[in-house]
Amino acid sequence: MSNAFQPLCSELREHIKQWEIKLALQPPETVGWRRNDQGRTIRQIVGHMVDSATNNTHRIIHMHYQESPISYPDYANRGNNDRWIAIQNYQEEDWEELIKLWAAVNRHVIHLIEQCDESKLDQFWISALNEKVTLREMIKDYPRHFKLHINEISALINQLTINHDKQT
After folding, report:
1. pTM of model > 0.85
2. Do you find a cis peptide bond into 143, omega within 30 degrees of 0?
3. How far apart are CA 162 and CA 24, in angstroms?
4. 111 CB contacts (<8 Å, ≥6 apart)?
């Protein structure tokens, strides 16, 4: 593993450790409300994060043995990630199991990052938006995307708490 990725991996591990506990403490009504600007509940956001982790797992692996540019089915654009959420029906997924899955697949992404062959970091894929994305860029961007959704979940939890406090 490139030592450059060690701080990134450590930071992600710490977020997962903290948020696995925070998510488990949330009551069903909190995780089941539709509150964000995309109409997603906390359950659905966590499910989306599972999908992101599994898609990135495939990207990391493929970039190790296929020649650039690599092509993948479009997951993140043109509404496809919403299709993934709907087809898997994360809204009805057992919350404890979903949290375990979320933690496990994200820990696995960290493991894959730690296994990356440095000679493959410039391998790239072309996104559905016709953008060139190297393995290095994808790895560096993973924490940003992860934290974006953690911050979104945090805001929803706090918003629900504030709204509840106003009602009492």
Report:
1. yes
2. no
3. 20
4. none
Q: pLDDT tens digits, residue range 98-147?
A: 999 999 999 999 999 999 999 999 999 998 888 999 999 999 999 999 99
What are the beta bridge partners of residue 41?
Answer: 34
In which residue are the tokens 């089941």 written?
32
Helix or strand (DSSP H, E) at 124 = strand 124-126
Task: Read off the tokens for 104.
Answer: 């496990």
The H or E element spanning position 132 is strand 132-134
Task: Give yes or no for a contact between 85 and 47, defined as CB atoms under 8 angstroms apart.
Answer: yes
d(CA 144, CA 141): 5
In tens, the pLDDT along 15-45 reads 999 999 999 999 999 999 867 989 999 999 9
